[in-house]
Amino acid sequence: MPVYGGSSIDSQIRSLKRGVHIIVATPGRLLDLMERKTVSLATVTNVVMDEADEMLNMGFTDSINAILADVPQERNTLLFSATMSPEIARISKNYLHNAKEITIGRKNESTSNVKHVVYTVHAKDKYAALKRIVDYYPQIYGIIFCRTRKETQEIADKLMQEGYNADSLHGELSQAQRDTVMQKFRIRNIQILVATDVAARGLDVDDLTHVINYGLPDDTESYTHRSGRTGRAGKTGTSIAIINLREKGKMREIERIIGKKFIAGEMPTGKQICEKQLLKVIDDLEKVKVNEEDINDFMPEIYRKLEWLSKEDLIKRMVSHEFNRFVDYYRNREEIEVPTDSRSERAGKSREGKSSRQAEPGYTRLFINLGKMDNFFPHELITLLNNNTRGRVELGRIDLMKNFSFFEVEEKQAQNVVKALNRTNWNGRKVTVEVAGEEASTEHKGRGKRNEGNDQGGRGRSSAPSADRKERGKGSKDSKQADSRKGKKPSREERGYSAARGPKGKDEWKQFFKDAEPDFSEEGWARRKPKKS
Predict the structure, then answer these.
(1) Which of 82, 84, 100, 408 could form a disulfide with 107, with the two C-beta atoms 3.0–4.6 Å apart?
(2) Cβ contacts of 208 within 8 Å, gap of 6 or more
(3) DSSP sequence for 82-119
(4) How far apart are CA 190 and CA 154, in angstroms?
(5) Which residues, 6 or more positions from 182, have their beta carbon under 8 angstroms from its beta carbon?
(6) Phi/psi of residue 485, each to 5°?
(7) Torsion of the alpha carbons at 358, 362, 368 and 371, rounded to the nearest 10
(8) Partners of 240 in the β-ladder
């Protein structure tokens, strides 16, 4: 029987008292029942730990140790995991004796029935790309995986508001809510489930056609668990990843782990999507079951109402009734731009003298006076934004430097982010955020005062254009005069010296003393050490 938190413990106790052979439990609820003396593990002979590494990562180490302490030492203990990580090897040493490893297939390899497809888009186009992919597969029955609970809920809400048959599954839902969502999903009342990685572990739903990764997971092995939700029981499935250019390195790491290459997907056009949806409407019409007995009494009135329409007109109207929504949406919709990853273009831009990286289209690049020396990393930046801004902030590229950093946000949110963060402190230090400039002057806050100009002896370039540059364009006459002067060194008098250059007199040093020559034998004067013979 299943034993888990969030459901009535009284009903579970009643079922346990009637006697069971197998208990499937979460660690917390099982401990609770053990403390109530409702469950005794003294006669247990087999212990199975499914996804043991994930349980320990979620903080169940003490609970597992307490449970195993009540189980007889003479027992069979089995650990199951879809991936064989170093963490699993460590756990096996702690909980297993004379362990034997059984591998079905190859370690960490994804199932051969799953096709891996990647769509590379700009970060700002991810949701639009997700919608196109879902529309292109009208018979989709799958899971969209997101990285955070907040993102999961937001994506699910957007899809539901736009008419998609979707719902969310994440850790902030109560157990009763999770059970309800999963029940609807299993009987296909829900076509698309938007979930966090918590749902990837142990989720048991058959016949999923697609798994969509709305961005790749931080832990590359989690991808194996995600993609393993489809392609089960000998059936084929598709694992789709929607990424931006910055995630390509992570994608190559996943390819190395699963032993397969991603197929580069071509973003469907509006015309292709409308064609797919039109065929779905026709298929649905063909599959409609007609109950002759129930409909017979109404047919005469229906024939009378539609007799003025020809067969062709009637078909067009029936199809358009469902199809117009997609036609209207994609009629004047711009196609999603595919980003280019040309290293030669980036190298050319750097040779042109651009000292700061340009933000992606639709994004603004911001400077912040915190860097790696402040223990400031992407996680800290995200926390800073979540704690001090309202609503969702769409982050782009993050560049961490030693004493300062740059990050990108959507253009429409840039000013709000600047205002919000400039009122905050980080570990006792005032946070300064501003829009990054187009030239090297944008980096002055991280580099001290090196760029203050040559007037103060600094080595930086002056930000103001020199008078000489302005004079260059005045005419050929001025330029010829400048050329004639070029290469001639100014005289000492022109540079402010009053005396000619040359050897000085023997006693000229005495001019610095108003009175008589000092007594160099007094204490405090430096004495030259006699040379050693």
Answers:
(1) 84
(2) 141, 142, 143, 229, 230, 232, 237
(3) SS--HHHHHHHHHH-SS-----SSSTTPPPTTEEEEEE
(4) 17
(5) 169, 205
(6) -80, -15
(7) -70
(8) 117, 212
Between CA 38 and CA 1 the distance in angstroms is 14
Query: What does the angle CA 438 – CA 441 – CA 444 come to, to the nearest 5 degrees?
Result: 135
Q: Which residues of the chain have pLDDT under 50?
A: 344-345, 347-356, 438-477, 479-486
Neighbours of 185 (CB within 10 A): 23
Two structure tokens written together for 354? 């651009």
- Within 10 angstroms of residue 254's Cβ, the number of other Cβ atoms is 24
Crossing angle between the packed helical segments 270-287 and 311-330, to the nearest 10 degrees: 140
**CA torsion angle for 74, 76, 81, 85 (degrees, to 10)?**
40
Output the CA angle 471-475-476, nearest 5 degrees.
115
Three-state helix/strand/coil letters over 437-484: CCCHHHHHHHCCCCCCCHHHCCCCCCCCCCHHHHHHHHCHHHHHHHHH
Q: What is the pLDDT of residue 523?
A: 56
> From CA 214, how far away is CA 251, in angstroms rounded?
13
Single-letter residue type at 505: G
306-342 tens-digit pLDDT: 999 998 998 888 888 877 878 888 887 888 888 876 5
Number of H helices, E strands in the chain: 20, 17
What's the pLDDT score for residue 164?
93
Cβ 212 vs Cβ 145: under 8 Å: yes
Give pLDDT, residue 70: 87
Q: What is the pLDDT of residue 192?
A: 96
Kind and range of the H or E element at 192? strand 192-195
pLDDT, tens only, 352-382: 444 446 778 888 999 999 988 888 888 889 8
SS3 232: coil
pLDDT of residue 340: 75
Count of beta carbons in the 10 Å neighbourhood of residue 442: 17
Nearest to 64 by CA among 38, 20, 22, 30: 30
pTM confidence score: 0.57
Compute the residue count for the chain.
533
Q: Are strands 395-400 and 425-426 parallel, antiparallel or unpaired?
A: unpaired
Identify each DSSP E strand in 292-386 by its residue range: 363-368
Helix (H) or strand (E) holding 66, with range, is: helix 61-69
Cβ-contact 364, 411 below 8 angstroms: yes
